[in-house]
């Protein structure tokens, strides 16, 4: 028994009928087009994953990556940027 109750002889007959209907040249072209489409899809998925990873790295820097100057600015705001409170 073959795949799902289909024997190897039945598969060969189906393949022969497909080759007779479409011809080898059209099937070869179809195969190369399908391969190119899959290759393009894989490349697009890989590019999207790389883009998402780059975005994630830019948004959340690690605690060790913050410089002492950035920490000083957070601790002591400039006098120019602070406005006096009017009451």
SSE series: HHH
**Which word captures the global form?**
elongated
Count of beta strands: 0
Mind summarizing the main beta sheet?
A: none
> Which structural class fits the helix and strand makeup?
mainly alpha
Unreliably modeled segments: none
Average pLDDT score: 76
* SS field, number of helical segments: 3
Strand content: under 5%
Termini separation comes to 91 Å
> Helicity range of the residues?
55-70%
Q: Over the alpha carbons, how many angstroms does the gyration radius reach?
A: 32 Å
Structure description:
The protein is 68% helix and 0% strand. With 87 residues, the chain is mainly alpha-helical. It has a domain at 25-57. The model has no long low-confidence stretch (mean pLDDT 76).
Blueprint (SSEs and pairs):
Blueprint: H1 8-22, H2 24-59, H3 68-75
Quickly list its features.
87 residues; 3 helices; elongated
What would a concise description of this structure say?
This protein has 87 residues and is mostly helical.
């Amino acid at each position: 028994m073959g795949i799902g109750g289909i024997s190897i002889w039945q598969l060969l007959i189906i393949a022969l009928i497909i080759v007779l209907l479409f011809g080898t040249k059209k099937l070869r072209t179809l195969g190369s087009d399908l391969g190119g489409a899959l290759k393009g899809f894989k490349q697009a998925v890989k590019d999207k994953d790389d883009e998402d990873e780059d975005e994630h790295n830019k948004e959340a820097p690690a605690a060790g990556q913050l410089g002492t100057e950035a920490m000083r600015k957070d601790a002591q705001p400039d006098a120019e940027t602070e406005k006096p409170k009017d009451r």
